[in-house]
Specification:
single chain; 280 residues; Rossmann fold; Alpha-Beta Plaits; 9-stranded mixed beta sheet; elongated; binds iron/sulfur cluster
C-alpha cells in the first residue's frame, strides 16, 4: 500500500508527518519503506538518519543527431512538444535540458539520423533507518527536470507499506509522486495561505483521481475556514494536530516528535489506523 503525503505549499509539516508515520507503521510490526520524493530538497534523512548502503546515478535517454544522415526535413522539430530539437539551416540541434525523453523524434525521423545518449539527472541513495527501508533522490544542480528522478525513487517501493514524501506544490514532481498512491494525505494549516494552497492540492488530487483526505497541522492557530471548506467540499479531515512549540524544538534538532513530545503520537493514531485498515 502506497501512502503519499503532499501539500500545496512548503512548511506545513509534511516531512514531520511522513517520517513519524513511517516509524509508527514499522513499530506496528509492518514492513515499511520511506521514500523522499522531494528530490530538489530532500530532508527526511535528517530525521530518520538512515544508513546509506547504495548510490545509483539516474540518466535520461536523450537524442543525438548524426548530421551526415540528417536531410533537414524538420519532422523531429514538428513532433517535439518541448522545443528540444530544432533545424537551423543544415544543422539539427538538440537542447538536451529541454528534452522530456518522449521518444517521438526517433520514430518520425525518416533517415534514422537520431540515436540515443544518456544525460545524468541525479542520484538515488538507498539504505535503512533501523527496519525502515529508505530512499531519496538528489537532483543534479542546475537540472530542471525532476519527474524522472522521482520515478526512480518510487521504484524502491516496499511490498508492504510505502510512505511517499511528496515535494511541495502541485506541479509535475508532486503529480508524479501521488500518481499511483492508494491514499493521499493533504497536509495543510488553517491560515489564508494554507487554505489557498489546499484548494490547489485538492484540484490536483481530483484531477489525478486520487483517494485523498486532509490532515490539518497546527490546527489551533488560524480560523475555521479550512474546516468549513472541507465540509462544503465533503472532504474528510482525518486528523487535526494542534500547535505545540515542543514539536518545533524537536524538529529543529532533527528529532522525531513521536519520541520527543509526549502525546504527539496520539494525534497520528487515526491516520495509522486508517492506513492499516485500508490494507487489511
Ligand atoms: S525525445 Fe521527445 S522531447 Fe526529446 S527531443 Fe525528441 S521529441 Fe523532443
Ligand atoms: S527528422 Fe531526422 S532527418 Fe529530419 S530533420 Fe530531424 S534528424 Fe534530420
Amino acid at each position: 500500500m502506497k501512502v503519499a503525503i503532499a501539500s500545496g505549499k512548503g512548511g506545513t509539516g509534511k516531512t514531520t508527518l511522513a517520517t513519524n508515520l513511517a516509524i509508527m507503521l514499522s513499530r506496528a510490526g509492518e514492513k515499511v519503506a520511506y521514500l523522499d520524493c522531494d528530490v530538489e530538497e530532500p530532508n527526511g534523512h535528517i530525521f530518520l538518519k538512515p544508513n546509506i548502503e547504495k548510490r545509483e546515478t539516474v540518466y535520461l535517454p536523450v537524442p543525438v543527431v548524426d548530421q551526415d544522415k540528417c536531410i533537414s526535413c524538420r519532422k523531429c522539430e514538428e513532433i517535439c512538444q518541448y522545443n528540444a530539437i530544432a533545424c537551423m539551416g543544415k544543422k539539427t540541434l538538440v537542447f538536451q535540458e529541454l528534452c522530456h525523453a518522449c521518444g517521438g523524434c526517433y520514430l518520425v525521423c525518416p533517415t534514422n539520423a537520431i540515436s540515443e545518449t544518456d544525460r545524468e539527472v541525479g542520484v538515488v541513495e538507498d539504505g535503512h533507518a533501523g527496519p525502515v527501508g529508505f530512499a531519496h533522490g538528489k537532483l543534479k544542480i542546475g537540472e530542471a527536470l525532476s519527474p524522472p528522478l522521482v520515478k526512480a525513487v518510487k521504484q524502491r517501493a516496499s511490498d508492504g507499506f510505502t510512505v511517499l514524501d511528496a515535494p511541495p506544490g502541485t506541479s509535475c514532481p508532486a503529480v508524479e509522486t501521488i500518481m499511483d498512491a492508494d491514499l493521499v494525505l493533504l497536509v495543510t494549516e488553517p491560515t489564508p495561505f494554507g487554505l489557498n494552497d489546499l484548494k490547489l492540492a485538492v484540484d490536483m488530487a481530483r484531477q489525478v483521481g486520487s483517494l485523498f483526505v486532509v490532515v490539518v497541522n497546527r490546527s489551533d492557530i488560524g480560523d475555521d475556514k479550512t474546516r468549513k471548506y472541507c465540509d462544503q467540499q465533503r472532504i474528510e479531515v482525518l486528523a487535526e494536530i494542534p500547535n505545540d512549540r515542543r514539536v518545533a524544538v524537536c524538529y529543529s534538532t532533527g528529532g522525531l516528535p513521536i519520541d520527543g513530545v509526549p502525546g504527539y503520537a496520539d494525534y497520528l493514531l487515526p491516520i495509522v489506523e486508517r492506513i492499516l485498515g485500508g490494507a487489511r
